[in-house]
Amino acid sequence: MKFKPVIGISMGDPFGNGPEITVRALADEEIYQRCKPLVVGDETSMRYALKVAGIVHGIHLELNVVSTPTEGKYTYGTIDLMDLKLIPADEIPDTSSMDVPEPFGVGACALGGEAAFQYVVKVIELALAGQIDATVTNALSKEAINMAGHHYSGHTEIYADYTDTPKYTMMLAHGDLRVVHVSTHVSLREACDRVKKDRVLDCIRIANEGCKALGIKEPKIGVAGLNPHCGENGMFGWEEVKEIQPAIEAAMAEGIIIPEKKPTPPDTVFSKALGGWYDIVVAMYHDQGHIPLKVKGFVYNREEKHWEAVEGVNVTLGLPIIRASVDHGTGIDLAGSGRSSELSLVNAIDYAILMVHARKEA
Known about the structure:
CATH class of the largest domain: Alpha Beta
Radius of gyration: 21 Å
Helix content: 25-40%
Number of domains: 2
Shape: globular
Order of helices and strands: EHHEHEEHEHHEEHHEHHEHEEEEH
Structural class: alpha/beta
Family: Belongs to the PdxA family. PdxA2 subfamily.
Strand content: 15-25%
CATH architecture of the largest domain: 3-Layer(aba) Sandwich
Low-confidence stretches: none
Pfam family, one: PdxA
Organism: Lacrimispora celerecrescens
Mean pLDDT: 92
Strand order of the largest sheet: 3-4-2-1-5-13-12-6-7-9-8
Largest sheet: 11 strands, mixed
Distance between the termini: 20 Å
Subunit structure: Homodimer.
């Protein structure tokens, strides 16, 4: 029998669209042919999401509430749930007589932030204990978790802290387009200051290992410049000469493949990546990497005024455990409407499965 990994899925902000897209993703029978999904969240929220899915999409699934991963049924038609009991029933709209979706309209709040944070901590604990094979995260609100007293700038930093990981980076992926970041959730002014040889070299190394974790045996890496035209030899900035190029040379001396042997101008590096020049790109800051991924993965139907696709995966590289995530926010404005896309969550589950198998084969 083919090995099917247990994938722990954090429910996300209970007042966001995480519960709904979880239900929609797990309404796909093929998911259960590839893995054993286990949701960590709240029964109150998941039952509401099931009601919305039934009204809007005709999806009818059962919940199996468990206390440990070994109690899961992992069969199509049943969602296995570890209920942390953090959201009281009176915080969720009554569904007993609901015949049309009733959006929450709650917004970011400390209760939602605390719950979402605890779901993430739980899946990390389960993975570190070897009770699940990988983790997948729905979106949380950075504002809400900080309102709850957890002062992190996002999932990446939570995972790094709770796994005692000093060197890590975020990877975004959509199909064969993959990007890692030298810096993420800091101001643009600070991001420029963080472009230093040692950090760039660390990210190149992590990118190389991250591709190998996906089964790419000899990764080709593109390294973006920071400044327009890569600084034109100092005319527009010296970072490429003083920091990025030395990091590239050190990486190549270790046998890492960087085809161009120098920084690539940011306005062409992603077109080249899409053309197959690289397996992954090292971006110098958050938006430099995020914008091209979201232009490719987020598709809005202007005539019908809705999102046709919200695809892409966020993976944290360098951790001792596997973490993949949706590449979008909490969808607070869509929560309870039944209109949120599950595609990014499905992509994240598939990436987690791929990484589990690659680790086993390594």
